[in-house]
Write a structure and sequence with these properties.
Elements (H helix, E strand, L loop, with lengths): L1 H20 L1 H25 L7 H17 L5 H17 L6 H24 L5 H29 L3 E3 L3 E5 H24 L6 H29 L14 H23 L4
Antiparallel strand pairs: 1-2
Helix pairs in contact: 1-2, 2-3, 2-5, 2-8, 2-9, 3-4, 3-5, 4-5, 5-9, 6-7, 6-8, 6-9, 7-8, 8-9
């Protein structure tokens, strides 16, 4: 437990440092974590006997940062992902033994790791620094604070199984506490940024806490489903007590998509 807590504190400190520098430093640092997470997922899928085509995803990743900073938008990044998926399909179709499941597992890290990573880049293009920082903090904090709350409450008071066929240790009580933790984090973050002039309505923080918290828990369950399919306990072991990069960021990816949608629906049209 002590190792888990110490590792968590160090990760929060590293995130705070990257957020304080922002800009290209944050974008490159975050995309490096995406590289590790995508490698971990492809490795797990390979261990399960699949033969995914990986290079289009890596090419897409390499091109994403300079394209984003050159055009200042994620507009071209979605066609880039679509093009990578088409190249994967082409290479698998011309194999001597093409298998549809190989195409599906080739695309899965592209859609579930790389694309949410690009949404995080999109958050850095918010109209002002306060909004950018707030949404980025929410993308990380809502699922991670919720996950921490769910872990401790579920460990102490959890009895009812949430989704035993996917993750036997997750409980209904832990999930409920985790959602409350996500909402609390969102409300506190809204309160702090309101002191510095951020003016979004209070109810936005409640909605983001609920939807972001649910999305984070679903992302965690999805990553567990992939691990169960591949027969691995963790995606990696680079973080003592936490597993691999994918184990730490699985819920963040799904929450990031929620924040990016919110940015483009509720904030950008008003500017």
């Amino acid at each position: 437990m002590a190792i888990r807590i110490i590792t968590g504190v160090l990760l929060v400190a590293a995130l705070a440092a990257a957020l304080s520098m922002g800009g290209l430093v944050f974008s490159v640092s975050y995309m490096l974590t995406i590289c590790i997470a995508m490698f971990e997922m492809y490795r797990a899928l390979g261990q399960a006997g699949h033969r995914p085509v990986q290079w289009p995803a890596w090419l897409c990743l390499v091109l994403s940062i300079p394209l984003f900073h050159y055009i200042g938008s994620v507009t071209l990044l979605l066609p880039l992902v679509a093009g990578a998926a088409m190249m994967m399909a082409a290479f698998i179709m011309f194999r001597s033994q093409p298998r549809l499941e190989d195409l599906l597992v080739s695309i899965m890290p592209l859609a579930c790791v790389l694309l949410p990573g690009m949404c995080m880049l999109g958050l850095q293009n918010a109209p002002d620094r306060k909004t950018q920082l707030m949404l980025t903090i929410l993308a990380f904090g809502i699922p991670l604070f919720g996950d921490t709350t769910a872990y401790f409450v579920g460990k102490a008071y959890g009895y009812g199984k949430l989704c035993p066929s996917v993750s036997p240790n997750k409980t209904i009580e832990g999930a409920g506490a985790g959602l409350l933790g996500s909402i609390l984090f969102s409300v506190i973050t809204w309160g702090v940024f309101s002191l510095f002039g951020h003016t979004s309505p209070f109810w936005h923080s409640l909605v983001l806490g609920v939807i972001g918290g649910i999305a984070g828990q679903l992302g965690d369950l999805f990553a567990s489903l992939v691990k169960r399919h591949c027969g691995v306990k963790d995606y990696g072991n680079i973080f003592p007590g936490h597993g691999g990069m994918m184990d730490r960021l699985d819920s963040v990816y799904w929450s990031t998509v929620v924040m990016y949608i919110y940015l483009n629906i509720a904030i950008v049209p008003l500017r």
